[in-house]
Amino acid sequence: LKGTLTAVESFLTVKSGPEGSCVHDGTWKSAVYGLADQDNLRKLRKKIGYAPVPVVGAKLKRRGLVFYNQEFKEYSIPFMGSDGSVVKRSQRYLYTELQETPVQYGAYVNVGGLGSVIKLMFAGVLFLLLVKFTFGRYLLTKYTEFFSARRFTKKGPTQKQVTNCFPSQFLNKFFVLVCFFLAEPGYVATPIVMVQAAVSLLEDAACLPKQGGVYSPGAAFSKTKLIDRLNKHGVEFSVISKPEV
């Protein structure tokens, strides 16, 4: 890119195929226990006491809990996964260790029309209330299919659901950067990413951080050829213009 990149917003879009979509309940349990433990996570971060990474350029404004996305013509909400925290950790490393310009980041997911928003808000409030209590977490993990409207099951997706899943897109708002999964993202594309990351560890050792420890993917692989490897194996990153979107 020409100039200095100072801020990125990403919008995740996932479409299911004619067989519908389903996720194994291991992911559901991770969400249940992760949210239940978020207060302890805040205490640990506060105890570590990292100095804030400087803001370069205009400060990226946080969007609302629900907003209509003019670019995609549907409603969007903040993405509740760990992406934001992981990216911030990567940017801290790139700034402090490699003196690169830190990039602000906001993660969002497109959820569809107003009906989808209402359903999601009702389910989200119920979920957040139940994870606060031991009995609530028991109910959520014991009766996963009921509370997730069968989006999560103990068996996971069928072979047809995996095979016929529409690709998902991960788009940045401005340039536009697109990460396009040519296969089902959870059970097909993820193993591809893991294998290619392992290949990078073996073949790009000189490009990895010099000291051992726990690193976020952006910190560990930023100087390797991982993106090139993924582009050749069905997880494509490309920069396109808005009309092409």
From TrEMBL:
The keyword Transmembrane applies. It comes from the Eukaryota. One of its GO terms (cellular component) is mitochondrion. The keyword Transmembrane applies. Keywords: Membrane, Transmembrane, Transmembrane helix. One of its GO terms (biological process) is glycolipid biosynthetic process. This is SCPDL oxidoreductase. It comes from Corythaeola cristata.
